[in-house]
Amino acid sequence: MNTLLIGKKAPNFKAAAVANGKINEDFSLDLFSGKYVVFFFYPLDFTFVCPTELHAFQAKLKEFEARGAQVIGCSVDSAFSHLAWVNTPKNRGGIEGVTYPLVADLNKNIARDYHVLNEEAGVAFRGLFLIDKEGVIRHQLVNDLPLGRSVDEALRLLDALIFHEENGEVCPANWQKGEKSMTPNQEGLTAYFG
Predict the structure, then answer these.
(1) Transmembrane segments in this chain: where (predicted)?
(2) Which domain holds residue 167?
(3) Residues 94 and 185 in one domain
(4) Which of 12, 106, 114, 190 has the greatest number of C-beta atoms within 10 Å?
């Protein structure tokens, strides 16, 4: 089975989600048509590494929003578990203050569709998908359960995608916004462009 989703339409879904402290029973990626989406999976609510990631995305949420991107989290928990976790203070292991949507994937179909379900453990690996304004997956990264992700790297990749779309140029290794990019020449080779 090919698990690579790059260049394919992001699998859509209809599920319950919690956002801004409320449950939305009819949540879908279609709600964000025309926007970039940073869609990430985490194993479970009320765990150890997961709250650090969710708080890290919240801390950078305004930076994602300034780039026209919607951050969305997803786990195999119920919407009621998400709601309870959002209402639990940070000093008690909760994620109070997280406002972006958390999708409930209790039947695990969304995690299966994105090829991140750890069938043995019954939870999702730490998958992250950058979806463009047309709903196409442009980046995917999947970490094993003990390995937390870098929110700064997700922002860097979003910047690279936006830069490429606006300028038609490509971004070399470790590229940061404002640095030199590259432009393909007619022979298919690349030359630095600054």
Answers:
(1) none
(2) 150-194
(3) no
(4) 114
Contacts (Cβ under 8 Å, ≥6 apart) of 186: none
pTM, whole model, 2 decimals?
Answer: 0.91
Closest CA relative to residue 131, chosen from 3, 9, 24, 4: 9
**Whether the predicted pLDDT of 35 surpasses 90:** yes
More confident residue, 68 or 183: 68
Q: Which of the residues 5, 18, 37, 50 is marked catalytic? A: 50
Tell me if residue 50 is catalytic. yes
Alpha carbon distance 36, 135 (integer Å): 8
95 and 44, same structural domain? yes
d(CA 102, CA 26): 13
Nearest to 73 by CA among 60, 58, 91, 92: 58
